[in-house]
Amino acid sequence: MKGRFRHPLVAVAIALLLTLPFVLLFVTHGYHLDPASTPEDPGANIAPGMAVLVGGLAILGAAFLLAWGAETAEKDVPTAFAIAVLAVLAVAPEYAVDALYAWNAGAFEGTQQGADAANLAIANMTGANRILIGIGWSGIALFTIYRAKRSNDPAVTKRAGFLTDAVTIDRDISLEIGFLLVATAYAFFVPFGGGIGIFDTIILVGLYGLYIGIVIRGDVEEGGAHVGVPAYFQGYSKRRRIAVVLFLFIYSGLIIFEAVHPFALGLEELGTSLGVPPFFMIQWLAPLASESPELIVVAYLVNKARSTAGFNALISSKLNQWTLLIGTLALVYSIAAGHLGTLSFDQKQAAEIWITAAQSLFALAILTNFEISIREAVALLVLFVSQVIAEFVIIQTYADPTAVKLSLSILYAYTAVYILLGVGLFIKRQRSFRELINHTTSSVQNVLFRSY
């Protein structure tokens, strides 16, 4: 009996059960959080706390299903492609939230409501990107090193000295880092165009399309050491295995896509009751909720001593958010507006893009030697948290326009700090940077010219 409960399908059943309350409560009865219920809308009196609980459980269960699907798929497709699919599905809710604001901006083009929606789209996008690095990259690095104290994780290098232990990054991720560098360099120039336009869509979406075209032609790695659920499913025949992978991807993707909305709304309602400003919640609280599936998946991989795959997923997520997410905003805006247009934003959001690009530059400079130490992870975390707290204090203390001016000053100051640290690291690690570029170029050439 004891061995029966260790069967991999038991874990799958538990993960599915975690999603069941959401399916029954929200999909069947709706997930409106307006306290004024009506006979026609019986689900309108769902308490925010219940929405957070049920939505959070669904996200947790779906994240495990998604991770198992990606690991199982590694038997049939290149690992980088499987991780890229995982990354897109895990952050799909972020696309949905941003697309909603971009759509409203286009639908109400030329009005204050449209302008506000455009600013919210940028705020939500930049918030999600900064959370992914400030909390995601740094937090997972620290968790990986902490986890290595109790497990034999070959990706963790232990060194003598204060906070010098580091997580080694797979050198094959140089392709993603290289593409991220190009996207980051381009992002610095986006605000000078007065908004995000179709030209930006062509460049950024085209960049991601080129990346996917390269990784999908990569080799399928042999002999991946999987255990538990992925190992069990990889023992299926190819047809059954593909069917399982498709089910896990589609089901978990739909659950994550749907569950994050009530989860985020519930958090926003709870935040409002505590006096947190709505704009601040849309920039930070909602993206934190939408990024939670990705962080859960990566934590799961690290806990299995697959920290390399975990970091690959984080970097891949940053790449698709920094290209696809930005690039598709102008497309959604144009469809809603009925013509090709530009998603314009104010000076505050231009500064948000610059600080996000600067943070990305610093983070990529850290990875040029294919590792991230405790010191570097702490630096990313402290810079991110201190900036968010500083802005929150200003918003709570001062009224507009003083609050806006002070917020801009903070954003510009942190942007300068990120750029100075990033450029300094690139200069210090010139040799590693050249090796990174050479490795990226070699990876591209090996794939593109393999058949010639």
Brief descriptors of the model:
three-stranded antiparallel sheet; 452 residues; mainly alpha; 74% helix; A middle domain of Talin 1
Write the layout of secondary structure elements.
Layout: H1 8-29, H2 48-73, H3 79-90, H4 92-107, H5 112-147, E1 156-157, E2 166-168, H6 174-187, E3 195-196, H7 198-215, H8 228-234, H9 238-273, H10 278-303, H11 307-337, E4 343-344, H12 347-366, E5 371-373, H13 374-397, H14 402-428, H15 430-448
What do you see in this structure?
The chain has 452 residues and is mainly alpha-helical. It has one domain (4-448): NCX, central ion-binding region (A middle domain of Talin 1), CATH 1.20.1420. 74% of the residues lie in helices and 3% in strands. The chain contains 15 helices and 5 strands. It has helices at residues 8-29, 48-73, 79-90, 92-107, 112-147, 174-187, 198-215, 228-234, 238-273, 278-303, 307-337, 347-366, 374-397, 402-428, 430-448; strands at 156-157, 166-168, 195-196, 343-344, 371-373. Strands 1-2-5 form a 3-stranded antiparallel β-sheet. A two-stranded antiparallel ribbon has the order 3-4. β1 and β2 form a beta hairpin. α2 packs antiparallel against α3 (79-90). It is globular and about 60 Å long. Residues 1-5 and 35-43 have low confidence and may be disordered.
